[in-house]
Amino acid sequence: MVCMMVLQVVYAQHEIRCIKREREALFEFKAALVDHHGMLSSWSTVDCCQWKRIRCSNLTGHIVMLDLRGNGERYISGEIHISLMELPQLKYLTLSFNDFGGNHIPKFLGSLSNLRYLDLSYSDFGGNIPSQLGNLSNLLYLDLSHNPFEGIIPSHLGNLSHLQKLHLSYLEIDDGKNVRD
Ligand SMILES: *[C@@H]1O[C@H](CO)[C@@H](O)[C@H](O)[C@H]1NC(C)=O
Ligand SMILES: *[C@@H]1O[C@H](CO)[C@@H](O)[C@H](O)[C@H]1NC(C)=O
Ligand SMILES: *[C@@H]1O[C@H](CO)[C@@H](O)[C@H](O)[C@H]1NC(C)=O
């Protein structure tokens, strides 16, 4: 197991696949977040395809996956920076189990048109669910559960015609208590 990992690293050192523009976008994205627990500490080298919680396409080098799921001890907070828009090939985005302190889900997520999988559960997102999420026409999986949203579920989500799984449980918390377990 360890041997295989070492081999993979050695092979990967031959070329840098990371696209410069995407690396810079991720540095901006990281700078806007609060990462007290070092979840993104590997995000510092030139080849962003080697960073933890990221996967690049091995055909194009574009970033296709960002898995920023927190857990009890490690989580991020702060702002979700619009620089994510510089990742046009992003298919898989997880921001669950973090602490966004009641901030709204950014409307621009609705423009990441290649997204197939979006998990924003258990992250203390507040405000209204942006109707722009209904623009994610390739989405197969959407999890908004366990967030203290206000208002109604936008009917625009009905436009997500490819959706296979939709999680909307525990959207409202009226006593202000944190649902993180
Ligand atoms: C891309 O990487 C995956 C996983 O490592 C591998 O299965 C696949 O064959 C690779 N594709 C190409 C075209 O190299
Ligand atoms: C996204 O959705 C909003 C409203 O839900 C709409 O006004 C807007 O034009 C859409 N944007 C794109 C790029 O499709
Ligand atoms: C999406 O849904 C809304 C409300 O359900 C509707 O008004 C709008 O025209 C739809 N947009 C598209 C692009 O289908």
From TrEMBL:
Membrane-crossing residue ranges in chain numbering: none
Leucine-rich repeat-containing N-terminal plant-type domain location: 21-57
Record has Iron as a keyword: no
UniProt keyword terms in alphabetical order: Cell wall, Disulfide bond, Glycoprotein, Leucine-rich repeat, Membrane, Plant defense, Receptor, Repeat, Secreted, Signal, Transmembrane, Transmembrane helix
CC terms in the record's Gene Ontology section: membrane
Span of domain Disease resistance R13L4/SHOC-2-like LRR: 83-169
Subcellular localization, as worded in the UniProt entry: Membrane; Secreted, Cell wall
Membrane topology: Peripheral membrane protein; Single-pass type I membrane protein
Gene Ontology process terms (BP): defense response
UniProt-listed Gene3D superfamilies: Ribonuclease Inhibitor
Similarity field: Belongs to the polygalacturonase-inhibiting protein family.
Name of the featured protein: Leucine-rich repeat-containing N-terminal plant-type domain-containing protein
Organism expressing this protein natively: Psophocarpus tetragonolobus
